[in-house]
Amino acid sequence: MTHQLPPLPFDYDALAPVLSEHAMRLHHDRHHRAYVEKLNKALDGHPELQNVPVEQLLKDLDGLPADLRTPIRNQGGGHANHSLYWSLLAPPDSAELPPSLARELERAFGEVEAFKAKFAETGEKLFGSGYAWLVTDGSRLDVIGLPNQDSPLSIGRTPLLTVDVWEHAYYPDYENRRPEWLQAWWRIVNWEAVAERLQDARPGATAHSGDRPASNLA
Ligand code: MN3
User: 99-207 is classed in which CATH architecture?
Assistant: First the structure.
């Protein structure tokens, strides 16, 4: 049993012109695949952990065998973060912000535009590679930046929305213009998926207790 690269939930060209087919093939088929392969390699010597969802492993890095902590954090994080990321994207201008989610964002950040400004600024200012995140601890919403492939799950937060600001995520289409990428990116956010995740992250939610497994364990 090994982790599998999940197919994109849309066609490779579905996000154009925000992201080109070329950029999506590179990002999914090369970068995401590499994380999955390295994750499986790291788990080679630990058959007892091969069936554990990667999100589960990320929630307790300190509880892992010492030789697995760094590979799970980096490669496991890379797999979980990309799987989540794809699920939060949709064809340009196809998704509307559900009123319920808009209200939650207003409650936390004053207004939706203030949330967007904080999120974009967090992505712009993140030095090097990483992601900007909208997270919850079960009650309040927060925007944070995390470096590399670090997952909010490892610090006890449930991720609701994220944008990849590794150069590989935007360089083919935007070169070094990260702010331009972060501006265009709003057009491909799958707001329904974000609202669903928030719903599931609430205490007492029945369907899921927070995150969803990214890994195909079949
Ligand atoms: Mn990436």
Answer: 3-Layer(bab) Sandwich (3.55)
